[in-house]
Write a structure and sequence with these properties.
The chain is mainly beta. It has 1 helix and 9 strands. The strands form 3 sheets. A 3-stranded antiparallel β-sheet has the order 1-9-8, with no helix packed on it. The chain has a 3-stranded antiparallel β-sheet with strand order 2-3-4, with no helix packed on it. The protein has a 3-stranded antiparallel β-sheet with strand order 5-6-7, with no helix packed on it. The relative contact order is 0.22.
Length: 129
């Protein structure tokens, strides 16, 4: 089952920067682009398996919002989690995120194989920024 969970307040994440929250077993990096657009991805670098992505630099590659890992500058799409250098072995998990009453909420999903397709669709339809 999927559910929206409060992660933090909007003032907890500076504009054009990131921060990290821990929800259950999930460490999630939250990024704020000009106080208008929000992204949430796993905080763990898939290359070095360290929880550092919330300290990465954000920017754009063309029209794609991205984060650069502070360890080796691997860049990832904040929208899809795709490695922008073309390395298919590295990918970030992304989370639906929304702002409600000045708080950031993240949708966590049941990760059981039998429900993953249904839950992804449900969260995507509820996704708002």
């Amino acid at each position: 089952m999927s559910q929206w969970i409060k992660a933090c307040g909007i003032d907890d994440i500076q504009p054009n920067a990131g921060g990290c929250v821990k929800i259950g077993e999930h460490q999630i990096a939250i990024f704020n682009e000009n106080r208008e657009t929000w992204y949430a991805v796993q905080n763990m670098c898939p290359h070095k398996q360290q929880f550092v992505l919330s300290r990465g630099l954000i920017g754009k590659q063309g029209d794609i919002p991205k984060v650069a890992c502070p360890l080796h500058k691997n860049t990832f799409s904040l929208q899809t989690g795709e490695h922008l250098g073309g390395n298919c072995a590295y990918h970030l998990r992304t989370y639906p995120i929304r702002v409600v009453d000045q708080e950031i909420q993240i949708c966590l999903q049941d990760e059981s194989p039998s429900s993953s397709a249904t839950q992804t669709t449900q969260c995507e339809t509820q996704h708002a920024q």
